[in-house]
Amino acid sequence: MYSENNNLNYQLKIWLFILLSLIILIILIGGLTRLTDSGLSITTWELFVGFLPPLTNDKWIDYFDLYKTIPEYSSQNSNMTLSEFKVIFWWEWAHRLLGRLIGLTVLLPLIYFTFKNGLWVLKRYGIIFLLICLQGFFGWYMVSSGLIDRVDVSHYRLSIHLVTAFIILSIIFWKFLKLTKIKINKISFSLSPIKFFIFLLFIQLIIGAFVSGMDAGTIYNTWPLMGSSYFPDDSKFIEFLNINFFDNPSIVQFVHRNLAYLIVIIYIYLLILVFRDANKIFRQPMLIIGTSLFLQVILGILTLLSGVKIIHASLHQINSIFIILSSLYFLYISKYEAKNN
User: Fold this and answer.
1) 155, 237, 255, 317: which has the fewest C-beta neighbours closer than 10 Å?
2) Residue 324 phi/psi, 5° resolution?
3) According to DSSP H, which parts of 36-81 are helical?
4) Would you say 215 and 304 are in contact if contact means Cβ atoms under 8 Å apart?
5) What does 113-145 look like in DSSP terms, one character per residue?
6) Cβ count within 10 A of residue 63
7) Confidence of residue 158 (pLDDT cuts 50, 70, 90)
8) Interval 7-20 mean pLDDT
9) Which residues contact 282 (CB under 8 A, 6 or more apart)?
10) What phi and psi, each to the nearest 5 degrees, are found at residue 227?
11) Which helix (H) or strand (E) holds 259?
């Protein structure tokens, strides 16, 4: 623990738990904002004035007129009514409002704890606030990519925005665990496989963001084959030598599928190692990871077969949170000690 003050530790845990809950919520809302094509409904930055939604009909018309100037409206939504615009506006507004509230939920308690307990609090937890600020910048950087020459945001920028959210989530969760009295247990094998497993999960998040950003899940809505073959017939393997191969939706979906298979294989290997370990304490956490992973595969398949229905796609994203957190928990409670020969 960072402090021997039990009351302070309790307060810090409450603070981090609230932050953890808010980050999970904003990932959920962010995913729904993307799935409902709402992310470009607010075309200006509005760091402070954006706290309040439009309160008059004239203000609603102003926002709608700004939306009409971007390619998404002219190419896809030229028949949209003001009432329909309000639906997508509320999703993006809620997403931005929650981001602002998270920033305040980090900053104000951080200032309070620092003044009351010393600069060590700022040194330990200041990284969270810095990443939250950086995430806000990444959010606007992402949105701005869809305002001029595109009908959607850049899938590369979307992936940065999403992965940064998961990095923030992971840091908060890890710091929360450090304030608990959870026992660290000895394990008989190196932790490199579980670290590699978590690394692959984050890579899969990036590829998943590519799939979402390019609407790559709406093509090849079959499984286990992509259409009539394992490899998409509208692409060639030689395209992997092209630096821009991640701009091909079919290739992106292919990579996303096959990386999932690799992750499952690595998990099975970890499961065997854990059940060979003399310490049975690791079995339940590993089985929890496996349950989440199995559910993730099922949800991924359902998302494809359904043509990316919002319910399936949203649950697929939400479940990725539980896989990441359960894997981090397993890593936290594990300690490998090499035997002396």
Assistant:
1) 237
2) -60, -50
3) 57-67, 71-76
4) no
5) HHHHH-HHHHHHHHHHHHHHHHHHHHHHHHHHT
6) 20
7) very high
8) 95
9) 185, 187, 274, 330, 333, 334
10) 80, -120
11) helix 249-276
d(C-alpha 203, C-alpha 50), whole Å: 33
pLDDT value for 341: 41
Per-residue pLDDT tens over the stretch 184-241: 889 989 999 999 999 999 999 999 999 999 999 999 999 999 988 999 988 888 888 8
The sign of the dihedral angle between the CA atoms of 153, 130, 181, 339 is: positive
Q: Is 320 helix (H, G, I), strand (E, B) or coil?
A: helix
The yes-or-no verdict on residue 52 having pLDDT over 50 is yes
Helices and strands counted in the chain (H then E): 10, 2
Label residue 339 by pLDDT band (50, 70, 90): low
> What's at 143, amino acid-wise?
V
Give the tokens for residue 85. Answer: 């615009």
CB-based contact 80:63 (threshold 8 Å): no
Give me the pLDDT at residue 1, please: 44
Q: What letter represents residue 229's amino acid?
A: S
Question: Which tokens go with 278?
Answer: 């003399």
If we measure between CA atoms, which residue out of 23, 320, 337, 335 comes closest to residue 176?
23
DSSP state letter for 37: T
Q: What is the pTM of this model?
A: 0.93
Q: Report CA dihedral (195, 199, 205, 207) to the nearest 10 degrees.
A: -150
